[in-house]
Amino acid sequence: SSTLLALLVWLALKQFILREAAFTDIFVCAGIYMVLLALIKLLIKPLGQIRQLAVLLGSAIPGLVSALPVYFLLYQVPHTPLEANFLPSFLIVGAWSSAVFSQVFVLGKAKTKNS
């Protein structure tokens, strides 16, 4: 679900930041983002139960790490120097979408636990 959110925002950003990028470029980047998020989830799973505060504070880190290859791939697309200033927004969207869904999950879990 965070991949879908990132994909939709990246497609919207593509219209303004990377007009030279094809739709397939964005879909490939979303696939890479999804695979890396899944790998990070598998690596974190053996840690067991993580405190809610740690999850809330660090929830953007997996998204940021997963968005790094996306940023470097999209940087290879021809762009102007002005567009290069806005390319980090692809990193921000990756981190943001991961944080949003992680926090919704944690807060929902805490609410059901208190009920």
Would you kindly provide a written description of the structure presented here, covering whatever features stand out?
There is one protein chain. The chain has helices at 2-16, 23-44, 52-58, 60-75, 81-86, 89-114. The chain is elongated and about 50 Å long. The chain is mostly helical and 115 residues long. It is 80% helix and 0% strand. The relative contact order is 0.19. The two termini are 26 Å apart. It is built from 6 helices and no strands. The mean pLDDT is 83.
List the helices and strands and how they pair.
Blueprint: H1 2-16, H2 23-44, H3 52-58, H4 60-75, H5 81-86, H6 89-114
Helix pairs in contact: 1-2, 1-6, 2-4, 3-6, 4-6
End-to-end separation = 26 Å
Whole-number radius of gyration?
A: 16 Å
Q: Report the order of strands and helices.
A: HHHHHH
Please state the average pLDDT score: 83
- Beta-strand proportion: under 5%
Uncertain ranges = none
The major β-sheet equals: none
Derived from helix and strand composition plus strand pairing, the structural class reads mainly alpha
The strand count comes to: 0
Helical run tally? 6
Shape: elongated
Helix content range of the residues, please?
over 70%
